[in-house]
UniProtKB/TrEMBL annotation:
It comes from the Bacteria. InterPro entries: CBS_dom, CBS_dom_sf, CBSX3_CBS_dom, Diverse_CBS-Domain. SUPFAM superfamilies: CBS-domain pair. Keywords: CBS domain. PROSITE patterns: CBS (PS51371). The lineage of its organism: Bacteria, Pseudomonadati, Bacteroidota, Sphingobacteriia, Sphingobacteriales. The keyword Iron-sulfur does not apply. Residues 9-67, 76-132 form the CBS domain. This is CBS domain-containing protein.
Amino acid sequence: MKSVKQLLDTKQSIIISVTENISVLDALKVMTEKNISAVLVMEDEQLSGIFTERDYARKIILQGKSSRDTLIKEVMTANPITIRLSDSIDHCMELMTDKHIRHLPIVENGEVKGMVSIGDVVKFIIADQKQTISQLESYISG
């Protein structure tokens, strides 16, 4: 069974985060610069939440709030569901499907190690399946 650690080893693991007291507008600027749809919210190197485009749409736009005047801590998803490096990719898929979420922060012994998105998981599974198919084809034709 493939693990989160194996997935993380295949991607560039840069932790992009903002603090709780940054404005939503400034967080959106960070997300745009980095071309990401979610950003971790951290205080003193501890994960306190996650802010996503979905949070923006539902908690700012639809509620008529100002992204310039609203702080991330007011609209972030506090205490997000997290995973560990030893968790299986299947477990990640189950969490994402059951909880209707697209991003899972990776936390090991209180330390943030990264984050995986649904796109990361799907890409990893496809690559793994291609490798398995290639090995089976080699075995059959060999």
